[in-house]
């Protein structure tokens, strides 16, 4: 690891000012992504600002939903009674990620800001526009099995690896941010961005902005939900494709639906049109097949990830079946 | 910058270190932000401000023994345990959070000690494999691993045992499937998995206090 200065913030403002005034600094929460990247020389911050002493680890009930502090651990959040009761989809997605040990370290804020697992990004000897703007995209003509089928650009075809974020975008969550210019609230779908010409920017956060909490509004999606993660082994591996599916049923009729995918784009991929196609229809395989068809419109694969064009719609149908408990 | 700095103990190290500190902590910070902002910010950090190569003091309770230590900020908890405290039971398999060989308990929770900085654990209570037995009396999980042949080469074993104890304490050992899922963060290249699961089930079903 490169040597760095270490400071521990006891006030949010101190952390924000220090980060805003020094582009070579980084916040550190659980450290499970940042330290990994630092050990490999992918990120080389000159100063780490430890935010773990800030009072942002509470999970609270609000009038219209849950407020989960950015420093709440992935494990604590996944096992929290209120989360299990009101947002079971989020608990399922969290438990599908990483390992029990890592979930005991990883925070909610750090999880949504974890960086892509693209192997070219991870290897400083390789070209990568995200790590080193202008150096080219190694994956575009290289080995791109894990890469995007939606929303990519010719500058970057990486996917966002977080499971938790797929559930949060489906549940219409919001991110609370505190920065040099004050506080703001972003719809979860607006936190991450598509690569475009600036793949080095994963999110729409500005320098110094600190995530303080995420809000998950109350919804009817407390029963018929399923997070399906397809990966190369049964556990402790990143998703090839994942699907967050949530249904609100009246008998066998779909009153409302939420659908999002992971492992397919530079951001958690909400499937709004497919959701619309589900509403008012019976919860049957035919309905789910149609939603999957709508969801896949515009998908385009590269040399090694053609399989995702088949895997993704199949995963959507399966996740919806599991959510509805249709066999 | 680090390439220009001779390692500790080599001639020129201290001088290079001083230059580095001046440049990194004062000059660049002042150049990038108005002085007042930096000063205001600095006062709201607690005493733990450590420059790059400067050692920072740290208090840890490791296996019931209180330690006052001094580490470079970039020292991981794993390296501190193994290299400074000579507790080499905790293993370094991958050093990237991928294998679980480095699993220890921090304030009762199992974590990968390779992916956390020692300074971040200031004031915490750490339990390593060396802290599990009571004197000569092995922990029930250690006994069960021996009984069920829960290892072959033994390299992953300290991590497996620390993880297994936590798995039961967390309440995640109710079925074979649940054990497999919640032990997936511990990789065994020798493939002792079935025996590891059997050991955990025995301890769990035996109802011993873990
Ligand atoms: C072997 C392995 C397997 C994994 N498998 C999975 C998986 O299957 N699914 C999955 O989803 N994840 C997986 N992960 C990733 C893991 O979930 C992330 O590393 C973790 O969630 C990051 O959280 P953290 O608190 O440790 O973040 P850190 O490493 O501390 O921080 C990550 C980034 O976020 C920034 N940051 C942190 N908190 C804040 C905040 N409050 N405000 C602003 N910026 C902030 C930091 O500056 C840093 O840039 C895996 C990781 C490993 C090592
Ligand atoms: S896909 Fe993105 S992250 Fe991967 S090499 Fe290309 S630019 Fe880098
Ligand atoms: S050494 Fe820490 S997980 Fe492998
Ligand atoms: S016993 Fe050899 S790695 Fe597990």
Question: How would the blueprint of this fold be written?
Answer:
The complex is a heterodimer of chains A (about 325) and B (about 210).
Chain A: E1 5-9, H1 12-20, E2 25-28, H2 34-39, E3 47-50, E4 59-62, E5 65-69, H3 74-79, H4 81-86, H5 88-95, H6 100-103, H7 108-112, H8 164-170, E6 174-179, E7 182-187, E8 210-217, E9 224-230, E10 241-250, E11 253-262, E12 269-270, H9 272-278, H10 285-295, H11 308-324
Parallel strand pairs in A: 1-3, 2-3
Antiparallel strand pairs in A: 4-5, 5-8, 6-7, 6-8, 9-10, 10-11, 11-12
Chain B: H1 13-32, H2 35-43, E1 45-50, E2 56-62, E3 65-71, H3 77-84, E4 103-106, E5 109-112, E6 125-127, H4 140-147, H5 157-170, H6 176-182, H7 193-206
Helix pairs in contact in B: 4-7
CATH class of one domain in chain A: Alpha Beta
What strand line-up does the widest sheet of chain A have? 4-5-8-6-7
**Shape, per Cα inertia axes of chain B:** elongated
* Order of SSEs of chain B: HHEEEHEEEHHHH
Ligand inventory reads:
flavin-adenine dinucleotide, iron/sulfur cluster, FE2/S2 (inorganic) cluster
Spatial separation of the terminal alpha carbons of chain B: 49 Å
What is the radius of gyration of chain A?
19 Å
How much strand of chain A? 15-25%
Query: Which shape of chain A, going by the Cα principal axes?
Result: globular
| SS element count, helices of chain B | 7
Multimerization state: heterodimer
How many structural domains are formed by the residues of chain B? 3
Can you say what the CATH homologous superfamily of one domain in chain A is?
CO dehydrogenase flavoprotein, C-terminal domain
Helix/strand class of chain A = alpha+beta
Low-pLDDT segments of chain B: 1-41
Report the biggest beta sheet of chain A as strand number plus sense, adding barrel if it closes. 5 strands, antiparallel
Largest sheet composition of chain B: 5 strands, mixed
List keywords for this structure.
heterodimer; A: Uridine Diphospho-n-acetylenolpyruvylglucosamine Reductase, domain 2; Enolase-like, domain 1; 26% helix; B: 210 residues; Ubiquitin-like (UB roll); DNA polymerase, domain 1; 3 domains; 6 strands; disordered N terminus; binds iron/sulfur cluster; binds FE2/S2 (inorganic) cluster
């Amino acid at each position: 690891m490169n040597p760095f200065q270490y400071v521990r913030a006891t006030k949010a403002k101190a952390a924000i000012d220090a980060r805003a005034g020094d582009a070579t600094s980084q916040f550190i929460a659980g450290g499970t992504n940042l330290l990994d990247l630092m050990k490999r020389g992918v990120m080389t911050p000159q100063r780490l600002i430890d935010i773990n002493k800030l009072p942002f680890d509470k999970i609270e009930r609000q009038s219209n939903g849950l407020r989960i502090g950015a420093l709440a651990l992935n494990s604590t959040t996944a096992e929290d009674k209120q989360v299990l009761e009101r947002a079971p989809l989020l608990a399922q997605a969290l438990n599908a990620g990483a390992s029990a040990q890592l979930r005991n370290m990883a925070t909610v804020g750090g999880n949504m800001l974890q960086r892509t697992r693209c192997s070219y990004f991870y290897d400083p000897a390789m070209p990568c526009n995200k790590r080193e703007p202008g150096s080219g995209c190694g994956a575009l003509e290289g080995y791109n099995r894990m890469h995007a089928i939606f929303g990519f650009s010719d500058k970057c075809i990486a996917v966002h690896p977080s499971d938790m974020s797929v559930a949060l975008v489906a549940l219409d969550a919001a991110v609370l941010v505190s920065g040099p210019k004050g506080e703001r609230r972003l719809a979860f779908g607006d936190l991450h961005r598509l690569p475009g010409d600036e793949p080095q920017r994963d999110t729409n956060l500005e320098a110094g902005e600190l995530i303080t909490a995420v809000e998950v509004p109350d919804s009817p999606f407390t029963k018929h939900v399923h997070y399906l993660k397809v990966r190369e082994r049964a556990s402790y591996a990143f998703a090839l494709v994942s699907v967050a599916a949530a249904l609100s049923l009246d008998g066998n009729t779909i009153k409302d639906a939420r659908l999002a995918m992971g492992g397919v784009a530079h951001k958690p991929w909400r499937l709004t049109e497919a959701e619309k196609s589900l509403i008012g229809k019976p919860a049957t395989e035919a309905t789910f097949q149609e939603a999957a068809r709508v969801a896949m419109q515009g998908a385009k694969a590269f040399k090694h990830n053609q399989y995702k064009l088949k895997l993704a719609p199949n995963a959507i149908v399966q996740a919806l079946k599991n959510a509805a408990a249709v066999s | 910058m680090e390439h220009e700095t001779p390692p500790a103990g080599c001639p020129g190290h201290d001088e290079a270190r001083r230059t580095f500190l001046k440049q990194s902590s004062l000059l660049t910070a002042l150049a990038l932000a108005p002085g007042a902002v930096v000063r205001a910010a600095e006062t709201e950090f607690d005493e733990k401000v450590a420059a790059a190569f400067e050692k920072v003091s740290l208090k840890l309770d490791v296996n019931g023994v209180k330690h006052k230590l001094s580490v470079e900020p970039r020292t991981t908890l794993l390296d501190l345990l193994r290299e400074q405290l000579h507790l080499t039971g905790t293993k370094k398999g991958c050093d990237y959070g991928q294998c679980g060989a480095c699993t220890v308990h921090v304030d009762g929770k199992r974590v990968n000690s390779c992916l956390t900085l020692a300074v971040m654990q200031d004031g915490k209570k750490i339990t390593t494999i060396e802290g599990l037995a009571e004197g000569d009396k092995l922990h029930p999980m250690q006994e069960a691993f021996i009984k069920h042949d829960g290892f072959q080469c033994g390299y992953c074993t300290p991590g497996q045992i620390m993880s297994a104890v936590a798995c039961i304490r967390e309440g995640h050992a109710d079925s074979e499937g649940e054990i497999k899922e919640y032990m997936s963060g511990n990789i065994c290249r020798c493939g002792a998995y079935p025996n590891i699961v059997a050991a955990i089930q025995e301890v769990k079903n035996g109802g011993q206090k873990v």
